[in-house]
Structure formats: C-alpha cells, structure tokens
Write a structure and sequence with these properties.
By secondary structure, the chain is of the alpha/beta class. The chain has helices at 6-15, 19-32, 37-49, 53-66, 71-82, 104-121, 180-183, 206-209, 224-235, 240-254, 269-272, 276-286, 303-313, 339-353, 366-374, 396-399, and strands at residues 94-98, 124-128, 163-164, 197-200, 259-263, 295-299, 317-318, 358-362, 382-385.
C-alpha cells in the first residue's frame, strides 16, 4: 500500500513548482497502486506542463478509466489531445553531464541516468567531471575521462552559447558548484527545452527517466536493469589502461583460472548503514557454498572486512593492492589520498568482478549494484543482499529541505 503522505506531498510540491518532487511522489504511488486516479491525473498535469502531450494524454486516459465520472480529468484529456505538439529547432542540441560529487559508482550511475535523459531528449551527451568530483586531481580536464573513453566526440569547448538552466553560461560551465541542491533539476525539467545546451548536475536516477522514453525507443517498456546494460554497452568503455590492469592482475594472481567475487562494504559506510555487518556476514556465509577449489576475489575498501574474509577462507582469498581504511574513515578522506589512484582502484575492482563466474554483494552499495547491472549475469550467478539502490527513485533527495 502506498504511503498516504505521498499524494499531499506531491500536491504541495507542484504548487511550489517542485515539479520533479511531485512527479517522483506520484510515481511512487503508482508503483504500489498502478490505477490510482489521483496520481495518474497529477502525472498528466506534470507532463502537460512539460509539453509532453502524448504522455499527458496517456496519463489522463488511464486516470479517466479509473475514475470515469471525473469531469476535470475529461476536460484535461480533451485539452491535451488538441494541443499542438512542440517543434524544436533543427540542429544539434547537447546535454552536459556534470559530476554528482559522491562515490565513483554513484557518480557513474548518475552519468548513466543522464545518458538515458540525453536519448529521451534527443541531445548529444558530453561529460565534465570538474572540481566537485572526488576523483579529479584539479587539472583543467574532464575527470570522467581518467576512467572511461568519451561518450561522444563533442568537447566542452565545442558547445554553443545557449543554456538551461539559466544559471549556466559559457563562463561557468567548469566552475559553478553550489547550485545543484537549490535547482534539483529532475529529468522532467529537461523535456522539450529549446536551449542548445542543457546542464545536468543533479542526480539522474534511471527509474525516473525511463517513463519519459518515446514509444519508438528500444528501451521503451524495458526494466531498469535492461536500461543499464544497454547504456553501459553503448557508452561506458573503460580506458585501455584500466582493462590492461585487470588483465595483469588476473594473470599474476589467479593464473587465468575461474573465480567468484564478493563485495564487503566498510569504511565510513558503517556509520551510514547499521545493517552492513549483517549483510557482510550473509555474503561471507554464501561463499561457503562455493566450490572449494575456486579462488574468491574480495572487493572492499576496509582492512577489517578483508581480514574477516582471510580468516574464514585463508589462501583462497585474492584482493587487489588498493588503499583501505582501518576505521570509520572513508578512503577519500584518508591523509594524502591520491584521487586519481582511488578512482582507478574502484574501477579495477569492479571490472575484475565482472569477469567472475559468480558475484555476491550488498544491494544498498552503488559498487555492488552497478556490478550487478553492468553484466547480463546468467540466472543464479549474481546475488544482491537487499534491493538494488539503482532501482530506487531517490525520493529522499527531493525531501531534503537544506543541504
């Protein structure tokens, strides 16, 4: 049953022009009650405001089917059927994807959502991870490209001078850092915008972008997992040196043999999630069912977690030589941390896990959740403890009053 507080929140949010918050609250209602007339009507209003009249017509039609006698819904349905569809100007339009500013795989999941948004809106994607990225060394370059190949041939300096949201201009594309929480520009804000360049700096959750796909798109009606795999295959291409580092580790440490992988969450995450210890214990317990002849690759940023695995499985454990925390401090905040090396280590661990025969991880971790999404794992070979965070609509981001 949907939370009864969601509809009042959505109505208040829409009245205060928090369209994204209103939309996500309405979608959460529909996740539990797909025929809820009030939520469908609200989404129709939101779609109409974004000039997405085809989607608005669909939502009003469904709402009227659930509540046939509602004159207001019928009136709105007639209006959007007659509304002229938007005609955007010819020529390339672009979506600049700024850093989200958190962990590597959280930032990559934001990029994936924004890449889907670029496809929804017919824009060419361009990345720029700048000064707020935890994985930038401060150089005047796109830190995303320290780890992945470019998502398009367009460079930041190639972008024309016409921007949305209006806080952006040619002079601050690399530097502005303090406005994303005030803007909270969810995907709905980018629909049918005429500006040549749109800038996405607030977290773009794939589940919130998928509903806006046009019917002719290959991902229309597909799952979140299918969307991640499609977008990863199309856009997320690790740099050659990352791939070479994975090859070298497998040859040196595992002699090319098959192996299983598991991710144990630690570091500062112990302070954020009291269930981590239970999840880690479940993951280690599941590894007892693995063929004892197989090696086990452990991904973790915590020396205590690695020690637990070695105590339990001894020499079967393999792990990369990455920097780890031995207390509640996140690796990013350890003294003399090299941000580029930290990002490389997170990349190498994850892409090694994708070569494992089986993987087990924590669904609340972006690391584990992305590994589960990036590969079409055969049935029964990938297990997440708990629901994947990447399936979440990130409603909490729109409930926060101040940051």
């Amino acid at each position: 049953m949907a939370d009864p507080a969601l509809l009042p929140f959505a109505i208040r949010a829409l009245k205060t022009k928090d369209v994204a918050g209103a939309e996500i609250a309405a979608r959460l209602i529909l996740d539990d009650a797909p025929d809820d007339a009030a939520a469908l009507h609200l989404l129709g209003v939101i779609a109409a405001k974004a000039h997405a009249f085809d989607q608005a017509e669909e939502y009003f039609t469904r709402a009227l089917a659930s509540e046939p006698g509602n004159a207001q819904i019928a009136q709105n349905l007639a209006a959007v059927r007659d509304a002229p569809r938007p005609q955007l100007s010819s020529g390339d339009r672009f979506l600049l994807i700024r850093e989200w500013g958190f962990g590597l795989w959280s930032d990559v999941s934001h990029v994936v959502g924004a890449l889907l948004l670029a496809e929804v809106t017919g824009r060419v994607p361009v990345t720029w991870w700048g000064s707020q990225s935890l994985f930038s060394d401060g150089a005047d370059r796109d830190a995303f490209q320290n780890y992945f190949r470019p998502v398009s041939d367009v460079r930041l300096q190639d972008l024309p001078d016409s921007f949305f949201p209006p806080r952006w201009n040619a002079g601050n594309l690399k530097t502005i850092t303090d406005a994303k929480w005030q803007g909270r520009t969810g995907p709905v804000y980018f629909l049918n915008r005429p500006e040549r360049v749109a800038v996405c700096d607030f977290f773009a959750a794939v589940p919130n972008v998928l509903p806006w796909l046009p019917s002719g798109h290959p991902l229309h009606g597909k799952s979140v997992a299918a969307a991640y795999r499609y977008l990863a295959d199309k856009y997320l291409r690790p740099r050659a040196d990352i791939v070479a580092a994975c090859d070298a580790f497998l040859e040196k440490e595992l002699n090319g043999a098959s192996f299983v992988a598991a991710h144990l969450r630690g570091g500062d995450k112990f302070l954020e999630d009291e269930s981590i210890g239970i999840a880690n214990a479940q993951i280690l317990s599941s590894l007892e069912q693995v063929d004892p002849r197989q090696r086990i690759l452990i991904l973790t940023d915590d020396t205590r977690c690695l020690a637990m695995a070695k105590d339990k499985f001894g020499s079967r454990i393999a792990a990369t030589d990455c920097r780890r925390s031995d207390d509640g401090t996140g690796v990013h905040h350890l003294p003399a941390t090299d941000p580029l090396q930290t990002g490389r280590e997170a990349m190498i661990d994850a892409y090694l896990a994708l070569r494992a025969q089986r993987f087990t991880g924590n669904g609340l971790s972006n690391v584990s959740a992305m590994i589960a999404m990036l590969k079409d794992w055969p049935a029964g070979t990938c297990t997440l403890i708990g629901r994947s965070i990447l399936e979440d609509r990130s409603f909490a981001l729109y409930q926060k009053k101040t940051i």
